[in-house]
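Fold this sequence, please.
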Amino acid sequence: MKKLVAVLVVALVVAAAVWVIVRIQLARQVVAVPELLPEQTLVLVEIQDFQRTRTRWHESDLYKIWREPAIQAWLQKPFAGLSQHGGGRKALEEFLQLGPEHGFLALTSLENNEPKLVGGFHFEQSTEATSKFIEEREATLLSRGGNTRRETALYQQHKIETVTAGRFVFARVYDNQWCFVSNDLAVLKALLDRVDHRKDKNGSSLRENAVFSTAMQRLPREYAGMIYLDPRPFVQKLLPLIAMTGQSMPLHQLQRLQQVRGVAAAVGFEQGKMRETDFVAMPQMGPEQKLKRTALGIAGTNTFLYSAGRVRWSDDLLAPAAPATVGLPALVQQFTSAMSNRGIAPKDLREALGDELEIIGDWPAEAHWPSLVATLPVQDLARARKIAEALTSVDIAGAAWARSDENGATVYSAQPFGALVPVRPAVAVSDKMMLAGTDVGAVTAALARFQQPADELSKSAIFQEASAKVPAAESAFNYVDTRLLYERADAAARPLLLMGATFYPDLGKRVDISKLPPPDVIAKHLSPIVMSQHYDQDGYVTESVGPVTFREATLGVAGGVGGLFIYLQEGLKNSQFLQNALSPPDPVTPAPSVSPTPIPSPF
């Protein structure tokens, strides 16, 4: 009997120890952010690990470009007025010392056009240290406003601190190494109910949302930042606004927009490269075959851009639109009107041309500017020629198109126009392809290469290595050789910038043109950007890898071109510009050599 009692006592002690260990492990386990949010959350932005993200950012190719001494010297002048020890950088360093993880910000509701936000982060340091850091920043922000009212309330053993300044409410609570904040007290209480597993009071969480769950399965488990969006409520609010402005949206675009049930994207770092994965939950846009990429065979060693994707010949493609007077919209309207006037309907487009659009950008070393050629497969030669004749019936820069026959195809070419960037557009139609390009020489050369494709780009090691980093493309594929593009662009733009600084001294007030970094300083850190897209069960998955992702590169180029245009436009308004251009420049006194002070990265 004594042995039996001893065995029972030992068993109870072991069971108790296991129970305590399990409870401790559960207490230390960080709850997943989606479990804290309501099922119908509209927007969620999350950063998994701040310190790890910063470390990998410092290992990235883009950061290595930033830290190059030549880049630092070039940026010394425009950043001369910035403090080397700014408050923002100091605050970031102090924040990272808290060991923040799983930082998030969510939009849970938009009823009555009043956004309800909730956010927070998990920290490793003590609650006292975290509270001190937040209260110091809070005091700085509130000191700029008017009267504030502070209150403290208890909710289910949680101490909630509330600050009210006018209509603004800032509610904050700490719980189990978490800091949660919200602009609505009820939303914060609902989050605490989920933390305490009082599910009966708040229903299901975002983790149980079918669209969100599907999206998370398509994204990588580890990422630097993630965003999830339910666009349906925003679309419902957008449509009445469009109607109020008197604008209309094509029916196919409206239907496609309403079919999108969710959008998710994740960005991270991988061996110095940035990787982005996007998922759009929506029905497949018609039966699709895998991309044939016929024009890839004519891309060569001077190709910096290759793109392949699907086009949609919708029924309202040639429908009349709001009149435009200048620019590209006006030219597009002239083309659509010309086709409509010649009796060409969307059905003719679908029967004449295939839906696989390919674009090739070439920039030979001896050329001052790049050339672009777009191709579409021809399914009905007679209809394709009719479309080409309609397009070329529109005069370009007041001049008619010339027609010739080359390499078994009919070629239509316009007169050159454009001063800074000369363009001579051309359209060609053969029994297999319809081509359009920015230069007639590039179009005729592409026709000749179609006769015997050399597959120079597809066989190159750099292309094959880059393509292997993303899944096989089924609906879209993009490739950009950033090193080749930068080297060609530098060779073309550097003389213009130096000449512009001579005739336009204001250009050198912010940037020292004479200290432009040598091209190899940046080029050695550049690698191709590659992007692929395919349909996976219930949505489109897009993946991109490169020094920057394809989306970021597109936005960056658009922003850079727009900013440069605005800057030059403002500069041309200066009445002194022409006077400076006509008068000889003042002699330049060499500045003493000074070692540049390193410009700290904001991250």
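The radius of gyration is 30 Å. The mean pLDDT is 83.
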